[in-house]
Amino acid sequence: MTAERQNISAANAERFAETIAGIIDQGAIAVSLSLGHRTGLFDTMADMAPAGSLEIATAAGLAERYVREWLAVMVTGRVVDYDPETSCYHLPADRAACLTRGAPLGNLAVYAQHVALMGGVQDRTIACFETGEGTDYVDYPCFHQIMAEDSAQTVAEALFDHVLPLAGGIEDRLADGIEVLDAGCGRGGALIEMAKRYPNSSFTGYDLCGDAIGWARAAARRLGLGNVNFEAKDLTGFAEQERFDFITSFDAIHDQKDPEGLIHGLRASLKPGGTYLVQDIGGSSRLENNLDFPMASLLYAISLTHCTPVSIGQGGEGLGTMWGWETAEAMLSDAGFATVERHVLPHDPLNVWFVARA
Ligand SMILES: C[S@@+](CC[C@H](N)C(=O)[O-])C[C@H]1O[C@@H](n2cnc3c(N)ncnc32)[C@H](O)[C@@H]1O
C-alpha cells in the first residue's frame, strides 16, 4: 500500500464517501426520471390534483404496484410531494414545468433517458474497454427516439426564433427556394420543420441509420411534404460537388467515422456563397476547461458509452462528444470556409453553433 493510502484523512474520506453515496442516489433518481417520462407519468400527474397511486396508475393506464414503487422514488427524491394523511401524491406545477412534454422550461426528463440508456449498454461498453473495439447503432435501443426528442427541444422548436437567424439572410433565401442538406439528420425533425415552412426550397436528409430514415420518410409522408427527401447514406467520404446552397448538421459531426473528412466534403458540396450551419457540443477540447461546463460529466459519459464507440465501430478515430469547440473551429477553418462565426444560444447552453460561409 502506498504511503498516501496509509495516511489518509479519515474526515476527508468520510466526507467523500457521503458525496459518492449521494451521487449513486441521484443516479437512481435520474433513471427513474427517464421512466416517468417514457411511461407518461409526469404528463399524467401534471394534469391531476393530489391523488392516490391507484388513481394515478389508472389515469396513466399503468400497473398500480409499479407506479406506487416509482412514486416512492419520486417522493424520496423530492420530485413528487406526498401527504401521509391522505396517501396522496402530487406533482406541483413548478416542478412539472421542467418534466413534461411541451413544458415551458423544456423537458429535462428527456435528457434523463441518456442516463438510462448508458446503464443499459454497460456490458457492451465493458467489452469495448476489453477489446478496444467499437459499437454499432443497433446496440442502442431507442437511441434515435431519444435523440429526436432531445434535438426537438434544442433545434426543431428553436429553429425559426433562434437557429436560422444565426445564418443572417438565410430565411429569405429559403423562402425564395434553395437546395438544403441536413447531414446526419437522424429522424429528420429539423428538416421537416423547414420543409413545411419553405415550400419553394428542396430539402435532403442523409443519415447512416436506415431505421431513423424510415421514421423520417414516414413523418414526411404523413404531412404530405413533396419537397423533402430522406436517404440512408454513409457520409464517410461524402461530397456532392457544389450541389447545396445551405447545409446543416445538428450534433452529427463528432460521432462520425471521419469528422474532418466530412467537414471538407460538406464544404465542397456547397455552392459558391453557400452557408454551413453546425450545432455540436460546446465543451472545450481541454479537459481542465470543462470542470464547470454544464452537465460535463453526463456529456463525457455519453461520449464514453455512445459517441466514441460508434465512431470507432465505423473504423473511425472516436473523436468523442467533448472534442471541443476549439477543434471544431480549427477543422472548419482548415476546410477552407471564407468565414467561421461561433455562437452560443441561451436556450441551448450545452452546444456551440458555427456559421461557416463558402
Ligand atoms: C447525435 S445523432 C444526431 C441526429 C440528428 N441530427 C438530431 O439532431 O436529432 C448523430 C447522427 O449521425 C449519424 N451518423 C453517424 N455516423 C454517420 C455516418 N458515417 N454517415 C451518416 N450519418 C452518420 C447517426 O446515425 C445519428 O443519427
How would you explain this protein's 3D organization?
The strands form 2 sheets. This protein has a 7-stranded mixed beta sheet, with helices on both faces. A two-stranded antiparallel sheet has the order 1-2. 48% of the residues lie in helices and 15% in strands. The chain contains 16 helices and 9 strands. By secondary structure, it is α/β, with parallel strands linked by helices. It folds into 2 domains: 3-117, Arc Repressor Mutant, subunit A (Orthogonal Bundle); 133-357, Rossmann fold (3-Layer(aba) Sandwich). It starts with a helix and ends with a strand. Helix 12 links the parallel strand 3 and strand 4 (202-207). The model has no long low-confidence stretch (mean pLDDT 97). Helix 4 crosses helix 5 (64-76). It binds S-adenosylmethionine (SAM).
Describe the SSE topology:
Layout: H1 3-6, H2 10-38, H3 41-46, H4 53-60, H5 64-76, E1 81-83, E2 88-90, H6 93-96, H7 109-120, H8 122-131, H9 143-154, H10 159-163, H11 170-176, E3 179-183, H12 189-197, E4 202-207, H13 210-222, E5 228-232, E6 244-250, H14 259-269, E7 270-281, H15 296-313, H16 325-334, E8 339-343, E9 351-357
Parallel strand pairs: 3-4, 3-6, 4-5, 6-7
Antiparallel strand pairs: 1-2, 7-9, 8-9
Helix pairs in contact: 2-7, 4-5, 7-9
